[in-house]
User: What shape does this take?
Amino acid sequence: MQKEKKDYIVMSIIIGVVCVILLAVMFMQFKTVEETDITAIENMREVELRTAISEWKTKYEETAEKLEANRKLIKDYQEKIEKNEETSSLIDYDLKESDMILGKTDVYGEGVVVTLEDNSECKVTYSDLIELINELRYAGAEAISINDARIINMTEISQPNGVMTINSETRVHSPYVVKAIGNQTYLSSTLNLKDSGFIDTCRARGMTIKLEQVKNVPILKYNGEMKTKYMMKGEEKE
Amino acid sequence: MKKKQIAITLGIVCFILTIAIAIQLKTIRNTNTTISQSLADNALRDEVLKWKEKYDVTYKELASSEKELDSIRKEATRNDTTSQAKQEEIKQNNMLLGMTNVQGSGIEIVLKDNLTASNDPLLTLNPSNVIVHNIDLIEVINALKNAGAEAISVNGQRVVPTTSITCVGNVIKINGQKIGSPFVIRAIGNQELLYGSLVIPGGYLNILKDAHVVVEGPNKVDHINIEKYDGVINFKYIKSR
Assistant: This one.
């Protein structure tokens, strides 16, 4: 009887100890497993990594090009200063470049022309046009106009009482001819994406829409004034 | 009797341990695959970091070259009033483009995915409606532009002529950068007009509120800082006549 009780106690203790050790080992292992996956980059899969590489590469190349252009401009200015020459032609060129990006000049180049038209089944809304602009910009459009009204940074499209209005002043009507300058292939393949692309989603709703690739798209300049009243220069942080 | 008890205890312990080991083996197998995968991906990872670093360095150089260009323009044009005016115009253009930090009075709005609505038994909502989509951001920005906003940013990303807001899967990207809820939209301009354009009945903010998206504001803020675009506008296809 005594012996049996002793055996029982010993057995229980051994089992208890073994359990504790095993649990400890298990927790240690679970912890290690948890620690192995943190930071964003480490978790990326191969496809994501490849996309990330090409994204950073493109960003780097564009920055490098811009830097190169800036340096050339600085050098040109320096030469003019050293030789005490007239700077007016150089500043004219400089200003023209910046006006071009902003939309203050007539421009041309390869691109696409998208025509949207009202029909009895589906009317074009301002939302369709702002979505199209967003898609075109995503595909790298450098200049956009709708029925020859230039779309600049702060352009809005509204539809008060059903009248499509661009920049609160220019009224436009169907058919809406949206011109965009940029890489033809990117522009048309982005819009033509099967099912989820802009053209297919509009067609599914019954809209009349067509896209043409054009070698030389002319886009007119923005005619209004670009004034600022509330915006002031902020502090430059370094 | 005692023996039976011991046998049962041992049986239970063995059973638990077996399950634990099985779970562990499974976890380990999973991590093993990630580990071997990550070994293969390490080279790619290094390359991502390499290009990112190259970009960072070049971007810093670009920022300083931009400053240098500003000062040399000023120096080169100081003897000529017409050129000086043109130099000022370039500066103004850069501000309009979003290439400089700006400040002024304006408004701030916060849009958030509604995470509690789907748990509310009284609301039978489509989960897709209560979250913020790229279209919602585009519409709000359009409304702000309509009210004459001069500078706009979303989660610190400046709205520039090349800005697009896209949605890939569950990720919203603006200027190529991933952003997530809460979406903080800041705009500089006439406070009354900006505010009015957003709270107008039937306006887009009310549409969002009716869809149970969380909308905070618009709040009028007297001093808003909006940061410059942190990318590059480098056009290749447009030409001037």
User: Anything to note?
Assistant: Chain B touches chain A through 97 residues (CB under 8 Å). The longest helix of chain B spans residues 2-76.
